[in-house]
Amino acid sequence: MNSILFWNRPSDRELPRSVDPLGFDALREAMADKLVPLLTGATRNADEYLWTLIGLRWAREATGSPIDATIFNQGFALFERALKQYWYKYHRRVSGGINVVSKICAEAQPDVRRTILVDQRATGLLGSYIVSLRGMGLIEKASIRVFDDASEPVLAGVKFSPSRDWKSNWGSLKRAFDGVTLGPAKRRLGIRLFGAGTPEMMRAAQAAFAKPSAASWVQVARQPLDAEQARLAKASAALVQLEAAALNAFGELLRGERMLPAATAKTLKSLATATLDANPFPSSWGDENPLYLAIRGALSKLRRGNGAETVLLGLHLEITRKVRKVDPWMLSLGEEPPGFERWRPGTGTNDFRFGNLRNLLKQTHWRPSAH
Q1: Which domain holds residue 228?
Q2: Based on C-alpha coordinates, what's the Rg of the chain?
Q3: How many domains does the chain have?
Q4: DSSP letter string, 132-158
Q5: Checking phi first, is residue 64 left (phi over 0); if not, alpha (psi -120 to 50) or beta?
Q6: Contact at 8 Å (CB) between 329 and 337?
Q7: Any residues with CB less than 8 A from the CB of 364 and at least 6 apart, and which?
């Protein structure tokens, strides 16, 4: 019996508190799922797509098993650790698990048995790329087995055949990975990702290619996107501004403020109006989606001039209690919940995967005529 639940069951790690207290991060992800449905926030490198496929193919052959847990634990996990040690020792390439990897690379021989990530399954290469690889039809939906017929045209000519001692000494490890050339495969990946993928991916690639200097979706909104993609592209700027202002204001409430400055309330009203007018909600959510109802309801209240403090707190309570089923960070205005005194909004990317799209277009040398 093959363990299809191994990869799809929740991680064993204790989940941290939500870092999306007002639901805007979820909205941005849903917008990005329409703009570039085959990408995720973690799919940044063409070679990592390919190494993930190579590693899975090798792991299944090396273990001789159809069982996911065996393929991963006895094959792919060891492959990824070896790859990251090779990257750092010979190319000074930094990736996940670098603190442990750098120490191993100072030692006399490689060590693929040592843990390099707290949860390699969730945060390693496969955790980052599996959703996109499945969306491209290269990995089975309920397993981590590679579709040979689909992956062979991408990996044609790419062979990973390490010697028996490749994991035990640096010279053999280097030779195992040095012998793999990925240039042509990157181009074939680009065709699969942008040319033979979903229509949205092709249109997104064409739009970005048409304006190579563009740094945001807003700048390509007039390019060949479909109607919904164009609407979401235009709306992205308004949402980003609103999210930043709302999270900063929410941070003040976390530190005990009962009343926001009049200028802050005015800004939130203006940004909420602009966001509603831009309509950033993807059709995939539907009119009854709880996130849609919560966020749109809060923005409508801000536009009407309702108290910004009460609106933000109400949105937070609805997102945490009703949508995510987790404990709220705070329950009432004036409360100063312990542990949040220094909380500030994160500085992570909010470009709706546009940067990832541009990187992959450059790395794969994709051109509109390639499809």
Answers
A1: 18-37+198-371
A2: 23
A3: 2
A4: HHHHTTSB-TTSS-B-HHHHHHHHTT-
A5: left
A6: yes
A7: 46, 186, 187, 189, 190, 191, 193, 194
* Residue length of the chain: 371
Q: How far apart are CA 221 and CA 17, in angstroms?
A: 35
Asked if pLDDT for residue 1 goes beyond 50, the answer is: no
- Domain shared by 72 and 210, yes or no: no
Instruction: Calculate the alpha carbon distances from 165 to 11, 70, 171, 360 in Å.
Output: 32, 21, 10, 34
Q: Do residue 117 and residue 65 come from a single domain?
A: yes
Token pair for 68 = 């996911």
Residue showing tokens 């000074």: 92
Check whether residue 288 and residue 330 sit in a common domain: yes
Residue 9 lies in a domain: no
pLDDT at residue 31 in the model: 97
User: pLDDT confidence of 75, banded at 50, 70, 90?
Assistant: very high
Task: Inform me whether the pLDDT recorded for 353 exceeds 60.
Answer: yes
DSSP 174-209: HHHHHT---HHHHHHHHIIIIISS-HHHHHHHHHHH
Mean pLDDT of the chain: 92
Q: How many CB atoms lie within 10 A of CB 146?
A: 24
Per the DSSP assignment, residues forming a β-bridge with 146 are: 139
How much of the chain exceeds pLDDT 70, in percent? Answer: 94
Residue 25 tokens, joined: 């991060």
- Helix and strand tally (H, E) in the chain? 17, 0
Does residue 7 register a pLDDT over 80? Answer: no
Amino acid at 180: V
* HSE-CB for 337 with a 13 A CA cutoff: 15
Q: Is the pLDDT of residue 19 over 90?
A: no
